[in-house]
Design goal:
Helices cover 52% and strands 8% of the residues. The chain is of the alpha/beta class. α24 links the parallel β8 and β9. It starts with 15 loop residues before the first helix and ends with a helix. The N terminus is likely disordered. Bound molecules: iron/sulfur cluster (SF4) (2 copies). One iron/sulfur cluster binds next to α3 and α5.
Length: 430
């Protein structure tokens, strides 16, 4: 399916000032997972930026080929880390996706699914809860085991995707919204916890562990009522209008001035929350509030490493490797803080694996929309874990945890996969 429209529309377009910083040096190419997979210039950062430029100049059609190359991008931002010219590729690709969303007519099924997920599901906590209950029924009723056992999933080409489904919690985190959890001992900080969307039905225990770890280190934790999805998934998908509405709701739910920090345990969310100022833009009525809010956002590991751990930690004899979540390492430039926390746990041996900061293939919904490429990247990742000889993989993002757990299962490995905060929580309660 092609579009006959050339050029970008004015709102949310890749800006000349941003893409013109690319000097075509190619130093990013070997840091780009999709270029390394296929060796195709059009699937490299430089090639994608060039295509944006040609469309902006009216020399290339915004059609199927462009959409394919932009869809194949992980938005992992490894190219940003590698780029000596300071090209903010994440900004460019999200703007390109916004243009695609506005101008390009995707196939009907794709349009229906995207509309359902981004516009009708993610913005509504009650619908996320309802969908999660259905999924929990599927997982708990024996239907999942039946579907796997009979080979139906394999026949439908859904076997890998089914493995990526989160295990739905028995007790959702939504019940904790609006509560305040006191600091243990003298209060060192007052923080707000940003609890995520899907995380509230699939990573409730991670959120609870985050609260306990913060409390144990002298933080009063408020879980603001009325918070919703951060908007990362819609923003990465090109639906910036949805992302903006979600940002406005979160800004109304959480007055940043009341807190020393706004904490998230999801690197993908943190990256977007820190960019609310950019998302809302200078002319938006909420821009100033977004600037203050964004300045207070901290990844849980970033905050704790800076605050300093005071809670006693008991030994955990474990050889672990750390997988950098892209939106922490490349999106937020945080690499040392989680490693510092891991090393703080007595008995834990941190072994670095090769390509620790290369995407595991999770990348939001990439593992669902581009499953083949995602699984290839996952296989590379599990090879690196195996070579490192780690007993456990520690990471900083719920999406990476799901992907890595699937990788361990698919490749017949036995490593435990856990969040850095879960490791700390375990050491505190061991
Ligand atoms: S490293 Fe930066 S300047 Fe060089 S080609 Fe890549 S994006 Fe362009
Ligand atoms: S964001 Fe990741 S996949 Fe996309 S061009 Fe940059 S390095 Fe490649």
């Amino acid at each position: 399916m092609t579009s006959t429209i050339s050029g970008f529309t004015e709102i949310d377009k890749p800006e000349y000032a941003d893409y013109a910083r690319c000097v075509h040096c190619g130093l990013c190419l070997n840091h780009c997972s999709t270029y390394r997979l296929w060796g195709n210039e059009a699937d490299s950062p430089r090639g994608r930026i060039r295509q944006m430029q040609l469309i902006d100049e009216g020399q290339l059609e915004l059609g199927e080929r462009f959409v394919t190359h932009i869809d194949r991008c992980l938005d992992c931002r490894a190219c940003e880390t590698a780029c000596p010219s300071g090209v903010e590729y994440g900004k460019l690709v999200e703007a390109a996706r916004a243009q695609i969303e506005r101008q390009y007519k995707r196939p009907l099924v794709s349009r229906l699914v995207r509309d359902f997920v981004y516009r009708r599901l993610l913005p509504y906590p009650s619908r996320i809860a309802a969908a999660a209950r259905v999924l929990r029924l599927y997982q708990g009723s024996g239907l999942a085991a039946f579907a796997r056992g009979t080979g139906i999933l394999k026949l439908l080409g859904l076997r890998d995707r089914e493995r990526l489904l989160p295990k739905i919690d028995s007790s959702f985190f939504f019940g904790e919204l609006g509560k305040t959890f006191p600091a243990r001992g003298a209060r060192r900080a007052r923080v707000a916890l940003f609890a995520g969307c899907v995380a509230q039905v699939a990573f409730s225990e991670l959120n609870r562990a985050t609260i306990r770890v913060l409390q144990a280190n002298g933080c009063e934790v408020v879980v603001p009522a009325g918070q919703v999805c951060c908007g990362a998934l819609p923003a990465h998908g090109g639906l910036r209008d949805v992302a903006r509405d979600l940002a406005r709701t979160n800004l109304a739910a959480c007055d940043a001035g009341d807190f020393d920090a706004i904490i998230t345990n999801a690197a993908g969310c943190g990256s977007t929350l820190k960019e609310y100022e950019h998302l809302l833009g200078g002319s938006d009525a909420g821009h100033d509030r977004a600037r203050v809010f964004a300045s207070k956002v901290r990844d849980a590991s970033e905050f704790l490493a800076e605050l300093g751990l005071t809670a006693p930690l008991r030994p955990i004899p474990l050889r672990v490797t750390y997988q950098d979540s892209c939106h922490l390492a490349h999106g937020q430039r945080i690499r040392e803080a989680p490693r510092k926390l891991i090393r703080a746990v007595p008995g834990v041996e941190l072994v670095e694996m090769q390509l620790a900061d290369q995407c595991c293939g999770s990348a939001g919904v990439y593992n669902v929309t581009q499953t083949k490429a995602s699984m290839e990247l996952l296989a590379l990742k599990t090879d690196c874990v195996r070579e490192a000889g780690a007993q456990a993989i520690v990471t900083s993002n719920p999406g990476c945890i799901l992907q890595l757990r699937a990788g361990v299962a698919i490749h017949g490995m036995n490593q435990e996969v856990l969040h850095v905060i879960e490791l700390l929580g375990r050491a505190m309660s061991a």
